[in-house]
Amino acid sequence: MSITSVKRKRKRKNKLVGQPSSNVPAIKHKRSDELPSFPKGDKLNPEDYIRLKQYLKEKKNLLKTFPRILLNARGQLSQVNDCGYSENPLSPSDLNELILYSIYGPGKYIPRWSSLEMQCNLNQTCVLIIDGCAVKTVDDFLNFKSSLPMFSKYKFLPPIEIELPPSWCADYDEPTIADSKTSNADKLFSGSTFNQNGNVDVKEVCSRTRLLLSLHQMMIHCYPLPTNKRQSKMDYNSFRFTKNHYLPVTDKSPMFAVDCEMCYTSIGRNELTRVSIINEQLNVVYESFVKPSNKIINYLTQYSGITALKLKDITTTLEDVQEDIIKILPPDAILVGQSLNCDLDALKLFHPYVIDTSIIFNLNGNKGSKSKLKLLAKAFLDMNIQCGNLGHDSVEDSRATMLLVQLKLCKSLTYGDAYLVGQQRLAQFVNSKTKINVKHIETFKKFLALLKSVSESSAKSKIHLKRNLVAAYENLWSTAKLEVEEHTTNKAVLEAVCKSMEDTTNRFCMAHMQLKNKNNLGLVNRWCEKYWAAMSSFALCAVLFTGCGVEGKNSVCLLNVKQPPLNHLQDCKEHGDC
């Protein structure tokens, strides 16, 4: 830059502040939290100019810490044009990436079509889905935009199109018998509590006899059975029955949780080295270390927790343990455990009445798939077990299995069983003669992958659904971190989700509602206004309207991050929150 241009620029600046062309002296000024007051007129003196410059600089730096969302070139291609559709709609996976990025932060999930700046300062992520808008024509879209002024009022991003169809169950508006039972079970479970000792005061809804494995299931899952001798690799000649005579099992029959630890011996398989039995009050009724009859080659300490020192003075044999268990168990006892067939093999015992937590809980919907006890305990009980490298604790594992069974008893037969839930809901729709769009089912499941990922995070989450939409959320149920609630009306859904958003410990909040009259968009605008007002500052808001786009087969999504009012700037600086 030439000297002449520099002088010309300085001359214009000095003219603004009312000074001759001499240099303006630097004046130090303390940081101000409020907009400074200036004398009326067109010109500022040097001190006022520097004060204003300092204030604007601080405000600019403060605003940089506010989270905001921007669309890149890919995202702009998905913006809805005046005809009501976009050049290149986003997929449900694209939307999932943004929402999961807002929860998890940088790492596994990175949105490729948008930029979420200052994600670390987000307080919440809130999603609202409204089914049934039926925006199919240009006139429908123009009416849609004009009927929802709140989005322009609060400066939402332009609407973007997403390949998310209306819920495939949206036309099914009658609560089923199973839904009613589940709702009643949830109400009853609200009265069941965990007392200070960790015991469960259970109000059972599901019969414990319904959780028992059938003979067919016991054969499939390789349980020791006297009728299975030829098919099994085990030598069942040395096995014993837990009783000489059994009584019929009832809902009053006592349950005992069993867990064993094993070590690898010279005969080429695992043998019993520890056994624990817990009653329904979570008290230990039997606990013993066991000396195997064969030489231990590998203690498997990282799994069993057994060491040579623990077995040094042990003289108890497997036969002693068998005798003790036979004396302890009543003739109608129900044994509870995780993959209990392995424990009965180690104990060399036959028992007819068993409940297996690896079978009655199914997390992925695949028949025969089993989840680890550690995962089940964390997901449903919020318990951390099998931590560290010191091996498993058979007492701890037994208590976890007993608590899981007691939880299912006071919920329902389908609780925690994704396969059974899927089969039940499919049967309900077949019987109701509802037309099911298979493409809609598969596409909506891609969106549900979001909720599966949310449930795996440590974030506390709440989901509120209108009851007739619940069937679309196959394989989704409440866990320790993710709570799913059903409601009979849209009003109840909206009130419940607004209450959930007021609690900022709920990191993720979602509501799914249904509009029955597409012309009643004024009501929708009031819903969205109330939803937006209940959100906390620095919350990401995503509102999806299904039934939009080309021929009404997709969804329109509006995004924004709620910013605090301008008077919040001073509070932020004083408390150091921003």
Automatic annotation (TrEMBL):
Alphabetized Pfam families for the sequence: RNase_T (PF00929)
Domain Exonuclease span(s) in chain numbering: 254-414
Basic residues: bias regions: 1-15
Compartment(s): Nucleus
Keywords for the protein's UniProt record, in alphabetical order: Exonuclease, Hydrolase, Nuclease, Nucleus
Key word Hydrolase present: yes
Single annotated GO MF: nucleic acid binding
UniProt GO cellular component terms: nucleus
Region Disordered, annotated ranges: 1-40
Main location: nucleus
Matching SUPFAM superfamilies: Ribonuclease H-like (SSF53098)
InterPro entries found in the cross-reference section: REX1-like_exo (IPR034922), REXO1/3/4-like (IPR047021), Ribonucl_H (IPR013520), RNaseH-like_sf (IPR012337), RNaseH_sf (IPR036397)
Family affiliation: Belongs to the REXO1/REXO3 family.
Protein name, per record: Ribonuclease H-like domain,Exonuclease, RNase T/DNA polymerase III,RNA exonuclease 1-like, exonuclease
